Amino acid sequence: MFPLYSCYTPIILLLFSCNTLSILPLLSCYTPTTLLLYSYYTPAIRKLFSYFVLLHRVPLIKGKSARESLEEQGLWDEYRGKFPFNPTRFDDQSLSVSSEQMTNDADLAYFGVISIGTPPQSFTVIFDTGSSNLWIPSIYCSSAACANHNKFNPGLSSTFKNAGKSLSIQYGTGSMTGFEGFDTVVVGGIPVKNQIFGLSQSEAPFMAHMKADGILGLAYPRLAASQATPVFDNMMTQHLVNQDMFSVYLTRNSEVGSMVTFGGVDPNHYYGQIAWIPLSSQMYWQITVDSVTVNGQIVACNGGCQAIVDTGTSNIVGPQADISSMARAVGAYSANGDNVVNCNSINNMPAMVFHIHGQAFTLPASTYSTYYGCRTGLQSSNSDLWILGDIFIRQYYSIFSRAQNMVGLALAR
């Protein structure tokens, strides 16, 4: 202990001088300088520091996606036609007060558990930075999609209040309809009181094949249907987090280990420095990408493009011409609607490099070409807005700062 203590920098000695016997007094003596300089210290010091910062973690489970479940049943081709990937929510600039456009993504595989009500009722949700509403199935839903998911019973919660508003969420060729209510929502041990959320009364058949019961949106309030206050906004307003930020770590192969951390960053999940990127718009977590290169040549996003960092989409999505150019550059070919590669060629395939805010973010072939077999995870859409989904986030630990309106990216461990 003493030899280690003697190696501490003055700023760390300042922390210990505040109070070494109690964590809470230690937290109370932080200074802005302390928090600013924290990011410059070695990983060992950052790890030590993290033990004194109150973080709220939600473990995520990497389970089977809807695509995997459907493929196992031999139904994927049928459902692909009925429920195509449709990121129309990114083009809708006139969001009505009662509906929210969102994506059908059959490849989503990361889910976490929250609870709602008093006593608590548990639900598995997708933590989605590409939407802003929280919704879960209700006992009033008779759809097949609700039959195999947990359903909220308002009558069993002493703290539930009906908001008196209807809710409609459009996705693919179907929709979720229901109503809104208020109750206590517990996320990562944080009790968020009087949180508005949606209770479904009908859901499209496709939802029956998704592992998650519902969705917890983490984008900005501007995107919220019915002007609902997002969960994280209430966390900030109710002073439930130390810092107005949350971060996401996604494992590559392991079913366990993925994490959403509310109130700060976890240095155990990344290497090196954090690159802070200012938002270009405060609705989604939207940033400017300067270009995409392969082997030093620009293959997409020439002259710059807009992209959102979206945990609610599994793939990298872009305009059709750009995605086709990227696929050709890495040696992919089209098969059954997917851009795929020869599994034996992965070690010889080039990396894709996203140039963002003057820095290069590299995706080696091993990160994009082994996605559910040898699919690249490159997917085209009719929108000009790019989506940097889970393939990108698995490679780069992603920090979402509402205090600074920035996204932080660091190489994931």
TrEMBL record:
Q: Which domain of life is it from?
A: Eukaryota
Q: Which UniProt keywords apply?
A: Aspartyl protease, Digestion, Disulfide bond, Hydrolase, Protease
Q: Which GO terms describe its molecular function?
A: aspartic-type endopeptidase activity
The first-level EC class reads hydrolase
- Give a yes or no for keyword Disulfide bond in this entry: yes
Q: EC number(s) per UniProt?
A: 3.4.23.1
Where do the Peptidase A1 domain residues begin and end? 110-410
* Entry-linked InterPro entries: Aspartic_peptidase_A1, Aspartic_peptidase_AS, Aspartic_peptidase_N, PEPTIDASE_A1, Peptidase_aspartic_dom_sf
Q: Does the keyword Phosphoprotein apply?
A: no
One Pfam family name is Asp
- The record's active-site residues are D128, D310
- Please name every pair of cysteines joined by a disulfide bond in this record: C141-C146, C301-C305, C343-C374
Q: Name one GO biological process term.
A: proteolysis
Q: Which function does this protein serve?
A: Shows particularly broad specificity; although bonds involving phenylalanine and leucine are preferred, many others are also cleaved to some extent.
Question: Which family does the record assign?
Answer: Belongs to the peptidase A1 family.
What this protein is called in its record is pepsin A
Query: Which species is listed as the source?
Result: Salmo trutta
Gene name, per UniProt, is: LOC115156470
